[in-house]
Amino acid sequence: MTALDIAEVARRSGVPASTLRYYEEKGLIASIGRRGLRRLFDPAILDRLALIALGRAAGFSLDEMAGMFTPEGAPRIDRATLATKADDIDRTIRRLVAMRDGLRHAAACRAPSHMECPTFRKILKAAADGAFTPPANRINR
Amino acid sequence: MTALDIAEVARRSGVPASTLRYYEEKGLIASIGRRGLRRLFDPAILDRLALIALGRAAGFSLDEMAGMFTPEGAPRIDRATLATKADDIDRTIRRLVAMRDGLRHAAACRAPSHMECPTFRKILKAAADGAFTPPANRINR
DNA sequence: GCTTGACCTCAAGTCGACTTGAAGTGGCAG
DNA sequence: CTGCCACTTCAAGTCGACTTGAGGTCAAGC
Q1: Does B90 touch chain A (CB under 8 A)?
Q2: Structure confidence by residue, pLDDT tens digits, A43-85
Q3: pLDDT at A133
Q4: Do A62 and A31 fall into the same domain?
């Protein structure tokens, strides 16, 4: 039998058992049966978990990803959705590059106080205008 | 009198009054008095709020930023801290660039299923290895 | 002087993705 | 056959940054 029990899936995927149960409850994954109480999973679950990890990293919510599989378990991903997400990330990258450069400047700047540095004040103004505040993604944690 | 009441600060800064009260409670900002019940703020609060917005965008928590002001209200920012944060952001950027490129590929790839695309599988493996999962920043949101 | 309504306080709720804890179950080694 | 213990369920807790709601106050305009 090729079925994996939950501990084995956890070990191989690095995803905690509690998270696997949570994903199942959410409909993101499905077990193929039980041995006693214990869930058994098809080894293909590992690919699926990798895909979920990828989607999460790309900024998709668990709910969004629940719709990205066919009932048979094959990924069904709209290419336009991917392109849109890529564009989102691209905007985030631009924002972060500006932030990083601003921070590096502030770290290197020799003005006695940051408030006396024109560059820093310019960055501050941009921040006040919300230039760095994202609309509502959440690539990170 | 140059003091601004909370509604005026909210209007000029774009920060909701509820947030201003919350920031005060957290010790991030301070009012200079009251008119009746109403808080009055020094106009310098606007710079401070901009700095807080900048810090948040850079990934500092509110608690971290509470320590970045002198009792007099001047920013007191350790340059090494800034450099460290810049490096953090730089790592995030690299991660995001990889993600973005991966997504663009997946969006453009003509393989019948994503799972049949070698490039996609490579990305998937990287995701499974946690290559895209951040340690615990939180630039976004 | 009285009403109005923007402000006040304080506790509780929200959001997403999980984790934790208490109480129960059952396969398997001895 | 028994005991162990890794699993099970289900409810509740966590984290950060706020928001919301109920009930209260008071400066200002009429």
Answers
A1: yes
A2: 999 999 999 999 999 999 999 999 999 988 888 989 999 999 9
A3: 85
A4: yes
